[in-house]
Amino acid sequence: MFLTPPHYDPLVFDAWRFREVMASFASGVVVLTAFGEDGGPRGLTVSAFCAASLEPPLALVCIDKTSNTLPAVEHTGGFTANILASGREQLARRMATKLSDKFERIAWERPATRVGGPILRDDTAAYAVCALRDTIEAGDHWVLIGLVTEGDHREGVAPMVFSRRIYT
Questions:
Q1: All structural domains of the chain with their residue ranges
Q2: Strands 49-53, 41-46: parallel, antiparallel or unpaired by DSSP?
Q3: Domain 15-163, CATH 2.40.50.140 — does that match?
Q4: 133 in Cβ contact with 97 (< 8 Å)
Q5: DSSP 23
Q6: 70 Cβ neighbours under 8 A, 6+ residues apart
């Protein structure tokens, strides 16, 4: 059964309906990280992340224009996409907030290159460090395309999945 929002106009595809449609698409959960001008870690939870090319290895992520992490991505010249492991819902929810102390009591390490952000090894199924290559303005978001310079995955660790506002 499909729900109809109040005052539905069949000629306008409104934001409410768009959110409902997109919530039905299952995706992985990524904590995107970078370092701010003060050298401190910044991060946010995103669900729009995917491979864009194999040759060269490019990854694509979408980030809200109002994100507190966006200036850190610009400063760092890249980002780290931490693909969360199953069972890390609390971390995903914490990183989705505007809290200033998001990284308190979270183990992380620096990538080998300067372009990425903190790697959350204990909480990930995989990670990819990316040098920012292109940005595309897309409505209220920026599409960031990064050249993958470093990455790894953990054998036997399942990634978390997000669908219809539920983590599984």
A1: 15-163
A2: unpaired
A3: no
A4: no
A5: H
A6: 63, 64, 142
